[in-house]
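Hi V.,

You were right to ask for the full record rather than a summary. Here it is.
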Amino acid sequence: MSDTTNGSAGGVGTLTKKDFTSDQEVRWCPGCGDYAILSTVQAFMPELGIEPDKTVFVSGIGCSGRFTYYMDTYGVHGIHGRAPAIATGIATANPDLNVWVVTGDGDGLSIGGNHLIHALRRNVNIKILLFNNQIYGLTKGQYSPTSEEGKVTKSTPFGSVDHPFNPIALALGAEGTFVARTLDNDRQHLTAVLRAAAAHRGTAFVEIYQNCNVFNDGAFDLLREKPQGQHNQIRLQHGEPIVFDEGNRCVRVGANGTLEVADTAGSDASSIVVHDATGRPSLAFSLANLSHGPSEPTCIGVFREIDRPVYGDAMEKQIEAATDRLGAGDLAKLLHSGDTWVVEGQAAG
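Predicted structure:
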């Protein structure tokens, strides 16, 4: 590891991508979108000026679970779905650490859905990256909680009858304080979203559309491949009118106040929506449901970003208040207080 300056004062020092890159061989399927995400995260981390030994990555089960091995930081490869719970404990016990969660649509939204929503509602100071490839990749191609209806897979040979989760809408419903979406292969946009997430105090939830080129190749081509992407990405910018497709299309207020995609030329300027990431959650929720999935023009960027008390901060205040009132704790005294009893040893025969 190179010599670094302490980033607590905002200095980047001499940290480089190499400082966050472990010596482990990266082992995903050739062409997997995870490679692009890993490279972008490793290149971005030095920006924070936080040394690797002050950083923790926590993952669950799935292809994304390997992420912790490839970051030269502290890491925990937890059990299925429990990464947000583990990260909650780490961040609460040591608020000086920079804690990131890496999970997938199966790990985070199936068995781990309960832990995810509670981390979001509590507003724990962690950053959650959810890789969404709309498939179970590690276990070889079963449908996942985000797979579209009718999806034919090894576990749904006649097509899935499940209605999929919308991860952004789910995070907003859990009252997440920072909710965003980006793409695996758009390094500039991904980095900008990571930068915003890292600056946020509280739980930052970032859905990343990630291509699984073996079991669900092309699921996001409308958005991530040129020239389709430039015509179908609805890029959200706080305080800016929501226009896309080189300005030719927009998001406007339609009948009964619903949002719709329309031609900019045929829309009254006053009907075009101006994005407000800090306002009421109703706008963000409407934008999250503007499309039925990545096969239509879809919003990317920061949907919502607000301030709310952070879980760990509130806990620290309670402990301080209790200490002021009751004095410093004495664990031995606590264990021997109240109703106690002694078990006598059995006499030798």
